[in-house]
Amino acid sequence: MGDEVDFTRLKEHLEKRFSWDRNAVEISPISGGYSNLTFLLKTPEGKFALRRPPFGEVAAKAHDMVRESQILDGLLMAGYRKSPKPILLFEEDYLIGVPFLIMEFVDGLVLRNKLPQGIKILQEDFETLSKNTLDSLIELHLLELNRSGLINLGKPTGYVSRQVHGWVDRYQQAKTDKLPEMEKVALWLKANLPQKENVGFIHNDYKYDNLVLNPQNLSEIRAVLDWEMATVGDPLMDLGTSLAYWAQADDPEILKMFNLTHLPGNLSRAEVIAYYNSRTPFDLGNILFYYVFGQYKVAVIAQQIYKRFLLGYTNDPRFGALIQVVEAAGKKAENAILTEKI
C-alpha cells in the first residue's frame, strides 16, 4: 500500500469554502513524525497545517481528528497559548480517504534527532530550553479543567490502571518478536499500581520534537504540537513518558533518536525530576513507577509502528529500525526496576 495522497478533491473543497484558487494551493508532507501525518498547506491566505491519521492498521481510538480538534478548542478556552488554533475539521472521508484537521501553522524550528545544518545551540541555551520545556509542561498540568471544558475530554478516575492494562494489551496485539524484558516489565507494572492518583490535563507525547522554537532564540517555545493523545489523567504519567524520552549521554544510542536532551547543557533526568517537584504540588515519591511505565509505553508505540512497517502499510525506512527501540526501552525499564534508579 502506497503512502501517496490525492488532494484534488480537497483543493476543490477549499476553493468552494474559502475561495482559495485550487491551482495556487500547494500541499506537501512535513517529515519527522511517527504517528498522525502532518502536511504543509500553502494557500493564497498563508500557511496552514493539515493533520490526518497514518496509513494502514491503527490502534482503536487512536488518531481521532474530531477529538484532536476538541482538545485544541479546550486549550484555547483554558488560556493555554502554546497550542495551534484549529481552522477546519472535516469528519467525512471522501475528500482524502480519512477525516482530517486543518490548523494554524506555527513557523519555527523543530529539533529532531540531530541539529539542523548550520545551527549551533550553546550549553546555556539548552539549559534554558530544558527549563522552558518543563515550565510549559507544568503550565499544562495545572490548567483549569471545568470552565474550559477540558474535564470532558478524559476520565481521571482509574486512569493509571487503565493505561497500564491498555498498553500491555496493545503490546500483545502488536508483538512481533520475543522480548522477555517486555513481559517482565508488564507484570511489574500491574503489580505496583500507585494507590493515589493526581488529576490534570496531560499531553502524553511531550518532548523536544513536538515543540516549535523561535529561530532567533532557540530557548523560546512558540508552540507545542501533536495533541492527539492528550487527555485528563495523572500528570505524573505524562512526566514519566517525557522522562523516558529524555535521553542522557550515557543512554543507548538508539534511544537518543527522539530527543536532543543528551547534548551538553540539558538537565539530567534527576534534575528534571527535582525541577518539576519544586514547582508542582504532586508527590514524586513513586516516580520510579511512572518512569518505568514511560519506557514501556515508548517501547509499545515503537512496536505498533514497526508492525505497520512489516505489514507494508508504510515504506518509511526509519520504521524498520524501531524494533531496536522496543528492545532497548524494554531493557531500560527492566534495569530501572532492578536498580531502582532512573
UniProtKB/TrEMBL annotation:
Residues 26-259 form the Aminoglycoside phosphotransferase domain. Signal peptide: none annotated. This is Phosphotransferase family protein.
